[in-house]
Amino acid sequence: MEVSSLLSFPEGLRVEWIEPQGADLSVGVVSTRPSSFCPLCAQASSQIHSRYQRTLRDVPCGDRKVILHLSVGKFFCRTPSCTQKIFTERLSPFVEPWAQVATRLFEAVQAIGLATSGELGTRLADRIRIHSSPTTILRRIMAFVLIQEVLEHFTRSSRDMQPCSAVTRPNPSDTNSRSHWHSGMSFSLFARKQALKL
After folding, report:
1. Average per-residue pLDDT in the chain?
2. Rounded distance between C-alpha atoms, residue 136 and residue 105, angstroms
3. What are the residues whose beta carbons fall under 8 Å from the beta carbon of 117, sequence distance 6 or more?
4. pLDDT digit string (tens) for 129-179?
5. Rounded to the nearest 10 degrees, what angle do helices 103-116 and 119-127 cross at?
6. How far apart are CA 23 and CA 25, in angstroms?
7. Residues forming beta bridges with residue 73, ordered by sequence position
8. Partners of 72 in the beta sheet?
9. Angle 93-97-102 (CA atoms, 0-180°, nearest 5)?
10. Sheet strands (E) in the chain
């Protein structure tokens, strides 16, 4: 079994190296995906501009905190009308573009907070090697509430949109389809970004 599968990384992420460092486990990860979609115009591109390095925390492995050193691609957008000439590869839902933690770690802390309502969650998190503060636990609870409120607002506001416009990519030649897709993505990204800022 490959190490990437053992660590439950999504397809397209390959483990290059693993190095224990005290109480941490550093893992070098490279994205091997040959193409990515422009976040602005949704057109696929396979022309790589350069590589971008990210560092983020992931769920623990045994008694060690896991630090991912992630290398992802930066691509050229070749759509003439698009203003996003160069964009960084997106790895959602594994990690959001602006996040410093993997989504599964964010959700684990959030679930602990919702189940224990604060300070007790910190003790539980420490027992399972997810080191977090009462303030962080509270922020995750607030993030859950914020996302629910924003998505509820979006649902009310999008009743006249196409049913799947917020979750499927648009037809590049269909202006109306692109408009619906961007509206849905804007609401979804706003909700998650604001939550992660808490």
Report:
1. 78
2. 12
3. 141
4. 777 766 776 776 677 666 666 666 666 666 555 544 444 555 555 555 555
5. 130
6. 7
7. 51
8. 52
9. 50
10. 13-21, 24-31, 36-37, 44-45, 48-61, 64-76, 86-88
Let me know: does 14 contact 29? Beta carbons within 8 Å: yes
Reference 31, options 17, 46, 49, 10; nearest CA is: 10
Coil, helix or strand for 68? strand
| Sign of torsion over alpha carbons 81, 84, 85, 89 | negative
More confident residue, 114 or 184: 114
Residue 189 pLDDT exceeds 60: no
Q: Give ∠ CA 118-120-122 in degrees, rounded to 5.
A: 80
Of 63, 71, 56, 65, nearest in space to 15 by CA: 71
